[in-house]
Predict the 3D structure of the following.
Amino acid sequence: MTVRMWALALLLSGLVGCGDAAQALTEQAKLQALRLEASQLHDTGQSRQAIAKFEEVVKSAVATDMERAHALRFISLGYYEMGDYPRSGEYAAKAAAYYPQGSYDYLVNMADADLMQGRVVEAAAKLEQAHALAPRGLAANNVLGLLYLGDNGEQYADYPKALAYNRAAFEIEPGRITEIALVRNYLALQEYEQAHAHLLDLSQRYADDAYIRNLLGQAESGLKSHRE
């Protein structure tokens, strides 16, 4: 091969490499846009649509294991929001499998799987372990808050205890889901002014949300009864 032909071969090889890199960047950009869209759908309560998008993330050829684990957890949360608890537990266990046993993420995902199968005491123990490992971890605070709100049985309700977790979850990630959990806690504690302030803001941002309107009605009724 002449020097000229060798140089041409190197140039063509470089162009192919650049093309592959550009394609990889394009696929990564698409994946990140998909993850963002899925998260926004989840946060606005559009669970079925969010699950479909997160399933695409799981199937993506360019997704990392951690991106798949993150997507699987949110699929689990989506099914929980829809009331499909067996599937929620199934996807939580799938997410847990990506993490080392005993790690924060393993514990919170396995706790979710336990909760969906009615093993509340075991789940609470795992969540408390996870919280000790990462006190500012969103998942542990969020799920502990819901557990002590009585979502997994009234016998586990402890509203003052739940409040610390609900507040922390909302501070860590302000959004519709964490704010609604905090509002529910305020309503349970009959702190109607606090609940009402949050609900006025939520009702402006999610004007078509019937659940938020219902909670706002509860807060207004509570305020009225306290004034009378």
